[in-house]
Write a structure and sequence with these properties.
The chain has 70 residues and is an all-alpha fold. The protein is built from 4 helices and no strands.
Length: 70
């Protein structure tokens, strides 16, 4: 999954004024990533300052949807 980190970094160059959550969403879009893998990479790449812990479940639901969009 080093590929995901590279995609995340590419998105951060392409969209320098956007936050980690947006960049992560763009990086996983259409990948079909499994939920456990998605959560692991989310915790590695997205800064905790960008979201409230109480909102994490809703954020993951949105990310699961993005990952499975063709």
């Amino acid at each position: 999954m080093k590929d995901l980190k590279a995609r995340f970094e590419l998105m951060s160059q392409k969209y320098p004024n956007h936050g980690d959550y947006f960049l992560f969403g763009r990086a996983i879009e259409g990948t079909g990533m499994q939920p456990d893998t998605l959560r692991r990479w989310f915790n590695k790449l997205v800064s905790k300052e960008e979201y409230e812990q109480k909102d994490k479940r809703d954020l993951f639901e949105h990310l699961y949807h993005l990952a499975n969009v063709a």
